[in-house]
Amino acid sequence: MNVVAVLRLPLQQDLSGFVGMLQRLQLPHRVSLEGEEQVLWAPDALAADVRELYQRFPDGNADVQLAQDPVGAGLPANAPAPPSLVAQARACKVTASILVVCLVVAGITGLGDNLSTIRWFTFLDFDVQGDYLYFTSLAQGLGEGQWWRLVSPMLLHFGVLHLVMNGLWYWELGKRIELRQGPGTLLGLTLLFSLVSNLAQHYSSGPSLFGGLSGVLYGLLGHVWLYQWLAPNRYFSLPRSVIAMMLIWLVVCLSGVVDQLGFGQIANAAHVGGLLIGCLTGLLGGWLARRKLSA
Q1: Is the backbone of residue 5 left (phi > 0), alpha (psi -120 to 50) or beta?
Q2: Which element (helix H / strand E) includes 253?
Q3: 163: domain CATH number?
């Protein structure tokens, strides 16, 4: 087996992320300096694979994509085992961080049982008098500088099932966006979708207690769905069954069946608001990506 020069790059090019990915994948390589260049060497049998990996993931932020399909991502069929969950979380820092914060808030609020701590995260502050909650107005809260309340309800969850289901879907959808569009985009979209869905729920139902990531999830769904429609990418695609299932669930919730079955009130306006703004950002982002590819 011969070792060959796979890449020759200028010294100012940062190879640390890509080299870290090769180390996690246990692909043999080394980097040397030759004059004003840095040279990445690898066995000749892996040269084409390593070169293709660099073309696709120059920053090395592709752990989750490789975990889903190492062969399709350009690795040989006998590639090492996919990255662990910890490695995936490191590659998707924003996705993982949002979920960790939700877990912390769930602990602080007792999964919705501790009213004294729940009020820190609700859309409107409230006082408890007997069996009733008395909410302050939105204008009063914003006037007192409580701007965080516009997005903080996404961190609240009421029960283990609520937290687990929302967490699993956020992991599935969030990591796709973070890996393709970057952590900053995912964080911005998460905050935007939370803001719009919370406002939609507030103006639909009036002062009330609501929370959860579900409005954000429908925003992420709409974004991924229409972005992929305009600018297809195999790792950004969602099975049609997943899209259909979430849309059917939305319709079922809107019908009121879930409320009648005793599963609690559903924040339908938040779901619809999140989906609509997500479709809008997906159309805009997909159009820009398509225009960039055709330029």
Answers
A1: beta
A2: helix 240-255
A3: 1.20.1540.10
Interatomic CA distance for residues 230 and 118, integer angstroms: 41
Last residue of a domain, which of 90, 115, 148?
Answer: 90
Question: What parts of the chain have a pLDDT lower than 70?
Answer: 1-2, 26, 62-84, 234-235, 258-264, 293-295
Which residues carry out catalysis?
214, 271
Number of domains in the chain: 2
**Residue-number span of the structural domain to which 281 is assigned:** 92-294
Task: Determine contact, residues 200/123, Cβ cutoff 8 Å.
Answer: no
Q: What is the pLDDT of residues 103-126, one digit of tens each?
A: 999 999 999 889 999 999 999 999
pLDDT in tens, 173-231: 999 898 888 899 999 999 999 999 999 999 998 899 999 999 999 999 999 999 988 88
- The encoded tokens of residue 185 equal 């985009």
The answer to whether 128 and 144 are in contact (CB under 8 A) is no
Please choose, from the candidates 147, 265, 257, the residue with its C-alpha nearest in 3D space to the C-alpha of residue 205: 265
Instruction: State the CB neighbour count (10 A cutoff) for residue 190.
Output: 24
DSSP string, 197-216: HHHHHHHHH-S-----SHHH
Q: Would you state the structure tokens that stand for residue 102, as one six-digit string?
A: 């939700």
Global pTM value: 0.71
